[in-house]
């Protein structure tokens, strides 16, 4: 692809798709090049309208994002194991060691995310609508099958060997990565310039899922753990039937992303709505859990708390408000020349050229805006600085894949290598990160899975673990958000690598769980709060 000469062009960059563009463009200009290249490749393949064959109707990106956020709320139910582990131990007549084996299997299933990841990458370009739904649906199906069998075993309707229960727990917990991979990857592809925001919001809802499940258990089922286990088996399937049809990758820039079509509802404001819902849930869940920890509540109060939680969740419906309807509407890129014949929009790829002739982008931006002064261009550049940073995160690597570019503390750029799976397995850095995460997250998962037994060993009642689970999982969400924000700020402003936050996570994890050995029952709520923060902080800390 040949670029028009620009006065501020310094060098060529090449991203992971093979597209070349000039360093120094504004984010709006670079975004125009990327979407133009995608449309041009479709046009050269003979597909009218710049869309993949047979894929002319797509669901609005904001509806896809809202559906994904709601589905993430059921993707983390594996963290609610302690809520129903007492009934499993009693009805199966197993020891604490055997129960811990089931808890380990429930957590280990999430370590096989590479399988849905490989399938997603192999099919998403050819089937942008079908692939996310099939992969997510596969995860939901595995979840229903696994938890239904656990419910049948807990109610003594069937009798399985212990090793069979281990396999069922692995199946049930592996479902989370199929659903999470489908939702996260699809939305990052839909919003490539807001991938950090997308990951933070969706992972935040995933972290809150067990806390919300705990609220539902307290409000509707407590102390009937068997009925709650059946609810965990069936409710995700019902939600998936409603939400998965709205999940798809949209391979073009739609009108809701165009500044001319915002009508006051900019993407930043829509993401702010999602953050407001997430933050309100964190505050509400923490407040209600702490109140239950210091004072007993009635069944009516617990039911009211659950209703308020669901009402806050309904705020997600405001995200796609006035976003252009259910179907995605592409931005019209064709203009007409003075003689009335269609002409390619300046700054886009000419469909008739095999190499993709690109017209000047700066000229296009000025002409559409009616002429921008230097001050106006500076203001626009400031508004799109975050997007530009994402786009500039690629550099040309001769004979290989591209690597990311990160800002060092002095403002210089450092190239980050992009390795294949095989190359990563041969890297010492990979195994250091893997060992750190296994130890740190393994400690948090072990604490969470054994909260019921920890509470009882310190004089708590059999069903007192729900408060500690809610505190832990709510702060799990808060830890993900705070660690992501702090590590991003430290990296780009001071050149501080995110792995230093991983060291802090490990130190805090070691200290807090060392205190657990001698902590009284009253200290478990504080340990759960701090432990949840440390557990959630591990997620963003290992990113490059």
TrEMBL record:
A GO CC term assigned to this protein in UniProt: membrane
SUPFAM superfamilies, sorted: MFS general substrate transporter (SSF103473)
Membrane topology category: Multi-pass membrane protein
Pfam families noted in UniProt: Nodulin-like
Subcellular location: Membrane
Domain of life: Eukaryota
Main location: membrane
Coiled-coil blocks: none
Residues in Nodulin-like domain copies: 61-320
Chain intervals for the UniProt region annotation (Disordered): 332-412
Protein's UniProt name: Nodulin-like domain-containing protein
